[in-house]
Design goal:
Blueprint lengths: L2 E2 L2 H13 L2 H12 L1 E6 L7 E5 L11 E8 L7 E8 L2 E9 L14 E3 L5
Antiparallel strand pairs: 1-2, 2-3, 3-6, 4-5, 4-7, 5-6
Length: 119
């Protein structure tokens, strides 16, 4: 599988980058514009694997979760969204959930907020 991001994937990716550390944002935005989807999660959730065209963007330092955010929908239990970087490149836009069944769609950006520290 190799395809362009759909509208919701692109919107959520940009929203998550907006929640990332300011120092990484510009490079990550360039990566987002050079991203394609290369795979889907096998469980049926809307998690997507990403690949970046290295001729159109630059890597950032490290391997890490760039940002974790809470998914706070009005109509169900929600969960969260994680954005991963591997070897400096955006690699995964992952959704996790609280309920029994995986969500069938990515959350709209308006339902995704910066995670609050847990105590």
């Amino acid at each position: 599988m190799r395809r362009p991001l759909d509208e919701r994937e692109h919107e959520l990716l940009l929203h998550m980058i907006g929640l990332a550390d300011a120092g990484d944002r510009e490079a990550l935005l360039r990566q987002a514009e050079a991203a394609v989807v290369t795979g889907l999660c096998g469980c049926g959730c809307p998690t997507v694997d990403l690949e970046i065209d290295p001729s159109r963007a630059q890597p950032i330092e490290g391997e890490r979760i760039i940002v974790g955010a809470d998914w706070v929908p009005e109509d169900d239990d929600g969960g969260g969204v994680l954005l991963f970087v591997v070897e400096g490149w955006l690699s995964l836009l992952e959704v996790w959930w609280v309920g029994d069944a995986p969500p069938d769609r990515l959350p709209p950006p308006a339902e995704v907020v910066a995670s609050q520290p847990r105590t």
